Inverse folding.
């Protein structure tokens, strides 16, 4: 970097891509990013949620964060969605494509994608 202006330009470009914030009220999307999750492909899933939330303009309502081991390694990548006044939804064996569908259907549209939940896998 050669100047403060260049640093500010980078910050402005990247601001839209970063929606990882703690302490917000509203819906929280938590992606398991322990070694098992990362090995199973959690990083592209996390990126897909961050990009999807940003693309849909939901940054003020939805927080995307990461956590360590959720404890169900055989179902990684795992994503948990916490919404005020509702039961937690646990999505398993996630992919970036599934994440896009969850953003559109569940986070934006309010409809849980039942085929991707732990209940669908273990039933």
């Amino acid at each position: 970097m050669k100047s403060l202006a260049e640093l500010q330009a980078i910050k402005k470009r990247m601001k839209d891509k970063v929606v990882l914030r703690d302490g917000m009220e509203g819906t929280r999307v938590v992606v398991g990013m322990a070694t098992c999750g990362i090995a199973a492909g959690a990083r592209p899933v996390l990126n897909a949620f961050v990009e999807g939330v940003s693309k849909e303009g939901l940054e003020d309502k939805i927080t995307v964060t990461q956590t360590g081991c959720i404890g169900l390694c055989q179902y990684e990548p795992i994503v948990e969605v916490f919404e005020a006044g509702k039961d937690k939804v646990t999505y398993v064996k996630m992919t970036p494509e599934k994440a896009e569908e969850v953003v559109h259907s569940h986070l934006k549209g309010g409809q849980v994608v039942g085929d991707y939940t732990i209940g669908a896998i273990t039933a």
Summary: The first helix runs from residue 4 to 15. The chain has a mean pLDDT of 88.
